[in-house]
Amino acid sequence: MVSKSNATKILIGILILGFLVRLYRFDNPIADWHSWRQADTSSVSRNFVKTGFDILHPRFDDLSNVPSGLDNPNGYRFVEFPIYNIFQAGFFKFFGIITLEEWGRLISIVLSLSGGYFLYKIVSKYSGEVAGLSTLFFFTFLPYDIYYSRTILPDPSMAGVVIMSLYFFDKWLSGKTKKWLDFFLASFFLMISILLKPYALFYGLGFIILAYDSLGFKFLKNWKIWALGLLSILPFIAWRLWMRDFPEGVPANAWLLNGNGIRFRPSFFRWIGYERLTKLISGFTGVIIVFFGIYQLRFERAKLLYLALLVGMVSYLFIFATGNVQHDYYQIVIMPVVAIIYGLGAKYFLQNNKNKIITIKSALLVLITLTAFAVSWNQVKDYFNINNRSIIIAGGVVDKLTPPNAKVIANYNGDTSFLYLTNRKGWASYEKSIAEMVIMGADYLVIASPTQKDLYFAKNYKIVKQSTDYLLFDLKQKP
Fold first, then answer.
1. Is residue 187 part of a domain?
2. Is 6 part of any domain?
3. Domain total of the chain
4. 51, 164: one domain
5. Predicted TM-score (pTM) of this structure
6. What are the residues whose beta carbons fall under 8 Å from the beta carbon of 184, sequence distance 6 or more?
7. How far is CA 227 from CA 200, 204, 233, in A?
């Protein structure tokens, strides 16, 4: 057992240390792992700062037809509703102090850790302090989560906010007076989480089980439950209907389901089961804790809730099969539930036994955890690295030497992180010939890490500046 005072000290210690470790390379430019998606997200925020908060017409810097297959001269970016971008741009514009990118990271960190706190509250209520604190510990310090919970993506915020909603929904159901504030907070946070990323809907089965556990099948006749569901989902539906008027700004997304036919194939299980869950997230030995967590689950009072959440996450992995295989950041969604299973596994090792046995089990848990963290960190540490500094140097040169309204071709095979670093609108690939792109409005061409063959363009366009890191051409002037 853990005393209340000690539990509070451990809780505060985990949260403070969790915040501090997430400041590792906090000031990184957007050129690390998955910089493409981070650049797209931050680009919308930067355009809010530059041109105003037109939240119904979010724009980013990419004018190409690569995301949607349609020419996008206005640079529309219709994905999730831009709540994350409103806060990122808003904090930067009104407070400054740190950079726009750092505000994006800080929002992800704060909301992710807040979700971890409420995850602790849920698990400790139903499974005790040991399980609750262990769940928070693994949610906070799994190396995979350390990296992704400080990225400029809406996913970590969504994962945190949906847990907040689940907590307040449970609190509302459990309260003798059924406080309206708890109901409002549950509805509000669920609505926000779905707008941040609709994958929050996969937590829905957990809400249903909590309602059933409290009200039985009478929950189906409870108008407040239905009101909560409608209040949460209607804004998302309205946003999706609005998006249909801007097809050029809606990236192709049907491929995320099973675009390459990988679902249920051996390669799917290898990538998700081995490469991601076993190797990347659990560092091999961590699966031992997961195994005992699943074993411990059968003895838990809230086993139906935990199973419901687990079923929701497994469903998510299978339904968005190609997306989960293609992108390892897609597993951010499942991390709260992964942490619960870890927490229950730790409880198995730490729960009361004879003194000698619990000492041995505790030592074994520490050894397994340290090994898992070491192996996982050995892979995740490279995510923080910037492997192509030439795009940072080249981007800075473009920002310094070209007019703010210039349009730039920053070819990076469609990856918009290079374009983002130029602080200009334009194209991240040679989607057409240079001559055609000049007609479309391209003013400059920048090439990072140029080779001798890139000097071919000097036959037709003036070199503004060059070095071993970049070549910058003025497409409106002849040599």
1. yes
2. no
3. 2
4. yes
5. 0.95
6. none
7. 18, 14, 10
